[in-house]
Design goal:
Length: 264
């Protein structure tokens, strides 16, 4: 038994296995160092943080595949045959996993076209949220009510994307109705007063306009400009102030109703 073990230790196979193990160990350590360098480079780059995970995942996968091929070559395995087999398997997998391949391609498209950046508040196919991450297959959004939504990258590329954070300001528009009995200028002034709060930009200045004449009320619109991150805080505060100021000034905020007159 010892003779067999001794002969194995002296054989070329053992030397190849030892070399392959050493290559794998050293390779894994090198990959970890390279990954840390890539992470450091990405953190200093202007590339959006949402794209970091996609780049890191692809780089890690590519380096481990290369390490496997080097180790296989050390064992005397014909790497060219492995590459050919991998090509066939890749083709077969790409046909069976078309959705995943489409999502990966979609991820690259998002990184190239930059329709949004990490931290932007966007609406994708009707789903709103803050961009948290772009990984190999999904774009991850965090909604205002603390839900995490993962949208396939292929769906993101094909969908209509509304980016509310791309500009320096965003308009808050609140529509209300008031009775025909209320003087229009009084209502307009009350709306502007309600919209005069902190975090509302002075340029353009808050403005109120008449939008329509309904069956039982006049429609008004209050328009304010704020920074994107202040949108919801201002929206909710002004909504409350409109009702309070209308009550203070005796302005009736109407609702749909039907008057029935009976003639004797």
């Amino acid at each position: 038994m010892l003779d067999i073990l001794f002969q194995f230790l002296k054989s070329g196979l053992f030397k190849k296995l030892s070399a392959a193990v050493v290559i794998l160990v050293i390779g894994v350590l090198i990959i970890r160092v390279i990954m840390r360098l890539i992470e450091a480079s990405l953190s200093k780059s202007r590339l959006e943080k949402a794209a970091h995970s996609l780049i890191l995942s692809l780089a890690k996968a590519a380096m481990y595949i290369l390490l496997f091929l080097i180790a296989a070559s050390t064992l005397g395995i014909d790497v060219s045959s492995i590459v050919a087999l991998a090509s066939v398997l890749t083709l077969a997998l790409s046909l069976s996993l078309q959705n995943m391949v489409s999502n990966i391609i979609g991820g690259f498209t998002i990184l190239y076209t930059h329709p949004f950046h990490s931290g932007d508040y966007v609406e994708i196919a009707g789903q709103g949220g803050t961009v948290r991450e772009i990984n190999m297959t999904y774009t991850v959004l965090a909604t205002p009510d603390n839900r995490v939504v993962s949208i396939p990258n292929s769906a993101v590329v094909a969908a209509q994307i509304v980016n509310y954070s791309s500009a320096d300001s965003r308009r808050v528009e609140i529509t209300v109705s008031a009775s025909y009995d209320a003087p229009t200028q009084k209502v307009l002034d009350a709306l502007v007063q309600a919209g005069t709060v902190d975090n509302v930009l002075l340029e353009p200045a808050p403005a109120a306009v008449i939008t329509d004449y309904g069956d039982s009320a006049i429609g008004y619109s209050l328009r304010l400009w704020v920074k994107p991150e202040d949108y919801w805080d201002v929206h909710f505060l002004v909504m409350q102030r409109i009702k309070d100021i209308f009550d203070q000034q005796g302005i009736e905020m109407t609702y749909p109703h039907l008057n029935v007159h009976l003639d004797k």
